[in-house]
């Protein structure tokens, strides 16, 4: 009924106007489907019990929260750090927390193999997965390079890091005998920082090109490098040439980058390190400070 009345009214209005009858018929045929669809929508809405608009959720939105530190986890890791330091007092120099609950062992360079072997094979540790090995360069230190080993224990769902130090000359012992996956990681540290690993099966560059000069992740390495690569159309091959900069791109600033940022002058790279007391006397001294 609604569509019929709607179409009749439209036809009457169109007849009053001076329009060709064939055009009016075409217009009415175009209007009728829309009228029928509108009638069905109104009928369905009148008999339907579901609301057309969405209701607001009754539960309130939860604001994002920062992951809180687990004190029980910290206590377990601290006890394990003390236990490891008691077992290897010759090599472990310090045990600390980084970023709240990340256990770190600071060791002597000669203790890389003993400490990693202990952490992997000890029944209370079982850090059988080597996640990565990376390097850090702090030019203001006497031993400017730091090598970090990240380990994962699937058995206890725990992580720890082992950090040691060296300079441009003193090598470190390769840990490929303990973790076979350390092969490419040590090659990467050698390529980017120049740290040499003794007894490595194939210590050569892995990221930079053949014949590359220097180690690009050192703080004293120039940003533009020493050589530039281009394709010579006359020779039809790639050519290596010394880097040449135009005069407008030259910057006559004699200050080194790490002199501008004071963070490189500090002993700790980041704030938030918490030293774990290894002896009972240190623990007793720390308890009254915590209560205050």
Helix content: 25-40%
Distance between the termini: 85 Å
- Oligomeric category: single chain
Strand content: 15-25%
Secondary structure tally: strands: 10
How many separate helices? 7
What string, H for helix and E for strand, traces the elements in order? HHHEEHEEEEHEEEHEH
Shape: flat
**CATH domain fold name of the largest domain:** Beta Polymerase, domain 2
Catalytic activity: a ubiquinone + NADH + 5 H(+)(in) = a ubiquinol + NAD(+) + 4 H(+)(out)
Keywords: NAD, Translocase, Transport, Ubiquinone
GO cellular component, one term: mitochondrion
Domain NADH:ubiquinone oxidoreductase 30kDa subunit: 107-226
What do these coordinates show?
- By secondary structure, this protein is of the alpha+beta class.
- 33% of the residues lie in helices and 20% in strands.
- α5 links the parallel β6 (172-173) and β7 (197-198).
- α1 runs antiparallel to α2 (21-47).
- It catalyses: a ubiquinone + NADH + 5 H(+)(in) = a ubiquinol + NAD(+) + 4 H(+)(out).
- Residues 107-226 form the NADH:ubiquinone oxidoreductase 30kDa subunit domain.
- This is NADH dehydrogenase [ubiquinone] iron-sulfur protein 3, mitochondrial.
- GO terms for molecular function: NADH dehydrogenase (ubiquinone) activity; oxidoreductase activity, acting on NAD(P)H.
